[in-house]
Amino acid sequence: IEALSPRQDFMGERVLVSAGPTQEPIDPVRYLSNRSSGKMGYAVAEAAAARGAEVVLVTGPTALAIPPGVQAVAVKTTEEMHKALTGHLAWSTIVIMAAAVADFRPARPAGQKIKKDAKFPTALELEPTVDILTDLADRRTTQFLVGFAAETQDLVSHAQAKLKKKGLDLVVGNNVLTEGSGFGSDTNQIILVDRTGRLTELPLMSKRMAAHALLDRVRELKPDNRV
Ligand code: CTP
Ligand code: CA
Q1: pTM for the complete prediction?
Q2: Is the CB of 79 under 6 A from ligand 1?
Q3: How far apart are CA 193 and CA 176, in angstroms?
Q4: pLDDT of 64-78, one tens digit each?
Q5: How many angstroms is it from 144 CA to the middle of ligand 2?
Q6: Taking CA atoms, which of 104, 125, 216, 221 is between 20 and 30 Å from 5?
Q7: Count of CB atoms within 10 A of residue 14's CB?
Q8: Which protein residue has the closest C-alpha to ligand 1 atom 16?
């Protein structure tokens, strides 16, 4: 019921959300990416807007419609996502990093399509991408910073480690191998780990409800922006 006519408890907040995968070119027609659908990040953007926030959604390539009242910035590579997010950081009061960012990229993408009949490479040399969230944590002033942790095992300990290592206020963990959870699904089973050490394991629910549960926790932890 709360999700259908939510209270305007994010009025005055400017929420910067990232969503979807990033794509790293191998050549002009091929890329490295991951299985992110963008559904969780879009649900967060939609929920924040419904609760009265101004929302900018920096999104990698997805098949989803931009939620009502949300301003979208479309990107493909990790570098483009990094630039768009740092460019909006000073504007924002809350940053929610739901994107599944590529950790590696081809070190030397080919300028032309690699042909199968030529001497095609049998291995791909990779280099690390920038860790956007760590960089945002370094640059932030008063922004409330939320990260995600996509894991296949030891969810709680990995989520706690990411909270500490990246200097975040809140981490949303999900086991991407759990049935009905993670990539592509309309539902998610998340845990919330916050900087006070509180750990909440939520049951399996729609990504829409999970987004509202996450925003409820943000509202509890962050001082209200309204004067
Ligand atoms: N993230 C990021 N930039 C990257 C990689 C990840 O900003 N280059 C962000 C994600 O958007 C997420 C958080 O960092 O909010 C954790 O991402 P995750 O992939 O779970 O962890 P990593 O730190 O990348 O470590 P690993 O993949 O090895 O578990
Ligand atoms: Ca990663």
Answers
A1: 0.96
A2: no
A3: 17
A4: 999 999 999 999 999
A5: 21
A6: 221
A7: 18
A8: 149
